[in-house]
């Protein structure tokens, strides 16, 4: 009974969000690593306050597409992006856009937990300090606490904020990285296989967290696992050989996909 | 038979053993290699090892032992009055007998018999064959030389037979051991392992030997000069030591030399650390792959320049340049063109040494900065940090322990550096703070004390060993501490 109503609420939320416009719009996005082309004219829109899952076999360009959304590809030698991507109404590849500011708005969580070799507190406070988000120590304390709470880590670490972030377990480290991203108050959070290095219990915790974060953030997540995509996302995009094959409601995607290749992939015929 | 020929024969037996062993294993397998425990080559190697190693071991032992045995046998045959002479004289006699024996081999049988009849011609005859003798040989020497030759020949023949038999027997033994279930691979690898262990022990034992020999000399120095006068003495004035004189006293205070060493090293680090570190940051974080591929090898070429060349550079270019420019400067300020920087000075030596150290600092730090995982960089950039913020707040703090380790290693090079300071620092052992004046270092004084006519009995020369071992201990401590830090830093990322 309870389950039903929760699902119903979710549906309603989805509907409402669907009425609201797209958070990010990618148009004819192509990416080249040197001479090698990794993405072919991808058109993919990311809905606000929605979890969008990117799936597809290894090497199909999921991470590459994800990284175009906050221009992390800029840090790779010889990588070139064409096409147009907007965040709200701003073209993020416009030379006038400050990439630093963009990344503050579009945060990222990586495949392997990568806390800085600093204390837990300093890890979370890193972004706010850089962007001058806190006016006082008390402010900063509040941001750190709030972020850790949002990442569901506060109760586990509140007594040892000054201890090293690298001393946490893998799952805690990943949630710390999520807290670190959340602390900058981004609008979009990108996650590249955030659970691939975690055990099932830690994975479940992170998935639950993604679910909760959806209320405040727009989330794009790359995942290897069909089940995970089904569990956490509302929209799913399937990539294959650098092409976007299909983008659809997650429910539909996993029950009745439009494209044969999606069907094959989901049935485990390649990948 | 000569030793090299013998070795060749053993090697041939080994090769043949290898072939036979492999062939035998193949034959046993009968086309089904999987029925063998090891691949046929291992059986072959097993036979080869058994035919060669024992034979060579016997050869080595014999080569060392037989001259000792023959020597004592020959000396045992000396007449009693010769045996009563001092050891040194006996050694001279024995050497002469060796020379005569060598000479005998060049003579025909008749010539030799003639010499036995008339010993007085011996010196002349042998001299004409290219074997000079220091004096006319006593008659017993000729007999002894003859005995020596006979024994040597016998020994050599016996050795040849023994070695060949050992090689054949070893090979046969190994050959008989070959069976499909025989674990040839494990045996062969065991021998390999022993070989590797021997190789590494040689390196370690050599180090131990060097330290031990330095230590013994240093100890005999400390028997003449009290240790505390050396370690805490503030005057370095070893005086001139006449060869053989052990009583000429001097003062051997280490402190002024150590002060010079540390001061010059400090100036060098002052130059090398910032430049090297900035170069490393640029190379690892900013330089495009193209720039990096050109600039990094160029920097490392600097590390390959022999330090004597830097010494030249200091002596011929930098020193005079600093002196002249200081003269110009003081001329401009005071009107008196007196240079306040001397050509040989702490500054000159430190500056040039600093240049020498730049590539060490930069390439070590570059490795360490590059070893900071890309994930940390991405993490910081992904939060909207700029590149320089990322370097300042994430990469350098993460790399800091490693960089400190690298700097310590560099410092130990600075302390041990010799050629630059010999040419550029001066020889005056003084304690003072003016970097424009010459000072001297531990290494310079070692060179000084060991130059010229040497006799290792006076404190004037033995002090070099005390200085050497002090230097060794300092650099060893620096290096161990550096390694410790670097290792701890490595663990952080594992
Ligand atoms: N830094 C890079 N340099 C060159 N090629 C890359 C780089 N990163 C990814 N690629 C290539 O781009 C393609 C897509 O990679 P990626 O986006 O990582 O795939 P996915 O995340 O879907 O497994 C692959 O063929 C990969 O080899
Ligand atoms: Mg990927």
UniProtKB/TrEMBL annotation, chain A:
The gene behind this protein is pstB
Keyword annotations for this protein, in alphabetical order, are: ATP-binding, Nucleotide-binding, Phosphate transport, Transport
PANTHER family, per the entry: ABC TRANSPORTER I FAMILY MEMBER 17 (PTHR43423)
InterPro entries, sorted: AAA+_ATPase, ABC_transporter-like_ATP-bd, ABC_transporter-like_CS, P-loop_NTPase, PstB-like
Q: Give the family this protein belongs to, as stated in its UniProt record.
A: Belongs to the ABC transporter superfamily.
Is the Flavoprotein keyword given for this protein?
no
UniProt key word Nucleotide-binding: yes
The domain of life for this entry's organism is Bacteria
Q: A GO molecular-function term, please?
A: ATP binding
Q: What is this protein called?
A: Phosphate import ATP-binding protein PstB
Tell me which residues make up the ABC transporter domain. Answer: 24-266
From TrEMBL, chain B:
Q: What is its main location?
A: membrane
Q: Which residues cross the membrane?
A: 6-25, 46-70, 158-178, 190-215, 257-281, 301-321, 341-361, 394-415, 462-486
Stretches assigned to the ABC transmembrane type-1 domain = 258-482
Compartment list: Cell inner membrane; Cell membrane
Task: Tell me what topology the record assigns in the membrane.
Answer: Multi-pass membrane protein
What domain of life?
Answer: Bacteria
In terms of CDD domains, this protein maps to: TM_PBP2
Keywords from UniProt, A to Z, are: Cell inner membrane, Cell membrane, Membrane, Phosphate transport, Transmembrane, Transmembrane helix, Transport
Fetch the PROSITE patterns from UniProt: ABC_TM1
Q: What functional role does this protein have?
A: Part of the binding-protein-dependent transport system for phosphate; probably responsible for the translocation of the substrate across the membrane.
Task: Say which family it is in.
Answer: Belongs to the binding-protein-dependent transport system permease family. CysTW subfamily.
Which NCBIfam families did the record assign? phosphate_pstC
Question: What is the designated name of this protein?
Answer: Phosphate transport system permease protein
Gene source species:
Shinella yambaruensis
């Amino acid at each position: 009974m309870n389950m039903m109503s929760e699902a119903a609420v979710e549906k309603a939320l989805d509907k409402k969000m669907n009425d609201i416009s797209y958070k990010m719009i990618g148009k004819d996005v192509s990416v080249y690593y040197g001479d090698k082309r990794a993405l072919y004219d991808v058109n993919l829109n990311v809905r606000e306050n929605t979890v969008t899952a990117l799936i597809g076999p290894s090497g199909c360009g999921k991470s590459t597409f994800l990284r175009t959304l906050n221009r992390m590809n800029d840090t790779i030698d010889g990588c070139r992006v064409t096409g147009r991507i907007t965040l709200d109404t701003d073209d993020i590849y416009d030379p006038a856009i400050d990439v630093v500011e963009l990344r503050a708005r579009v945060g990222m969580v990586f495949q392997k937990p990568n806390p800085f070799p600093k204390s837990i507190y300093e890890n979370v406070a890193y972004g706010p300090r850089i962007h001058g988000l806190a006016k006082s120590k008390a402010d900063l304390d509040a941001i750190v606490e709030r972020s850790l709470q949002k990442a569901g880590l506060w109760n586990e670490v509140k007594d040892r904020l000054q201890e090293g972030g690298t001393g946490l377990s893998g799952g805690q480290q990943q949630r710390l990285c999520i807290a670190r991203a959340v602390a900058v108050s981004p609008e979009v959070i990108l996650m590249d296989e955030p659970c691939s290095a975690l055990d099932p219990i830690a994975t479940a915790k992170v998935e639950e967290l993604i679910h909760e974060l959806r209320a405040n953030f727009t989330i794009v997540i790359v995942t290897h696992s069909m089940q995970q995509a089904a569990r956490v996302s509302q929209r799913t995009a399937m990539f294959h050989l650098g092409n976007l094959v299909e983008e659809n409601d997650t429910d539909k995607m996993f029950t009745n996909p439009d494209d044969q290749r999606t069907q094959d992939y989901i049935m485990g015929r390649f990948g | 038979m000569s030793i090299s020929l013998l070795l060749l024969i053993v090697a041939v037996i080994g090769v043949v053993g290898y072939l036979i062993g492999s062939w035998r294993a193949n034959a046993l397998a009968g086309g089904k290699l999987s029925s063998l425990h090891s691949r046929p080559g291992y059986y072959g190697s097993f036979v080869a090892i058994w035919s060669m190693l024992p034979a060579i071991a016997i050869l080595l032992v014999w080569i060392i032992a037989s001259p000792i045995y023959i020597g004592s046998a020959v000396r045992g045959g000396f007449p009693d009055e010769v045996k009563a002479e001092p050891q040194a004289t006996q050694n001279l006699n024995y050497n002469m007998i060796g020379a005569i024996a060598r000479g005998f081999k060049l003579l025909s049988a008749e010539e030799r018999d003639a010499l036995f009849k008339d010993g007085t011609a011996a010196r002349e005859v042998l001299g004409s064959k290219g074997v000079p003798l220091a004096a006319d040989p006593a008659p017993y020497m000729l007999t002894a030389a003859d005995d020596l030759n006979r024994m040597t020949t016998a020994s050599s023949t016996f050795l040849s037979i023994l070695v060949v038999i050992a090689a054949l027997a070893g090979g046969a033994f190994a050959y008989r051991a070959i069976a499909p279930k025989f674990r040839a691979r494990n045996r062969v690898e065991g021998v390999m392992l022993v070989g590797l262990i021997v190789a590494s022990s040689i390196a370690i034992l050599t180090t131990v030997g060097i330290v031990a020999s330095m230590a013994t000399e240093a100890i005999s120095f400390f028997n003449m000069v009290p240790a505390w006068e050396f370690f805490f003495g503030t005057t370095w004035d070893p005086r001139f030591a006449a060869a053989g004189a052990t009583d000429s006293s001097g003062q051997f205070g280490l402190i002024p030399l150590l002060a010079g060493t540390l001061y010059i090293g400090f100036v060098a680090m002052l130059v090398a650390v910032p430049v090297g570190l900035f170069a490393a940051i640029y190379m690892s974080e900013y330089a495009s792959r193209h720039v990096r591929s050109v600039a990094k090898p160029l920097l490392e070429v600097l590390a390959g320049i022999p330090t004597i060349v830097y010494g030249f550079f200091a002596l011929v270019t930098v020193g005079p340049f600093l002196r002249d420019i200081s003269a110009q400067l003081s001329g401009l300020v005071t009107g008196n063109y007196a240079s306040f920087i001397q050509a040989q000075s702490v500054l000159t030596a430190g500056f040039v040494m600093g240049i020498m150290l730049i590539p060490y600092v930069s390439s070590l730090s570059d490795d360490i900065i590059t070893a900071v995982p890309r994930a940390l960089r991405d993490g910081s950039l992904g939060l909207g940090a700029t590149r320089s913020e990322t370097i300042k707040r994430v990469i350098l703090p993460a790399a800091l322990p490693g960089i400190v380790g690298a700097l310590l290693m560099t410092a130990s090079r600075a302390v041990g550096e010799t050629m630059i300071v010999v040419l550029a620092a001066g020889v005056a052992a003084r304690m003072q703070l003016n970097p424009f004046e010459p000072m001297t270092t531990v290494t310079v004084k070692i060179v000084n004390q060991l130059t010229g006519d040497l006799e290792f009995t006076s404190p004037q020369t033995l002090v070099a060993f005390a200085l050497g071992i002090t230097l060794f201990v300092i650099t060893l401590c620096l290096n161990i501490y550096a390694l410790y830090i670097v290792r701890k830093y490595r663990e952080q990322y594992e």
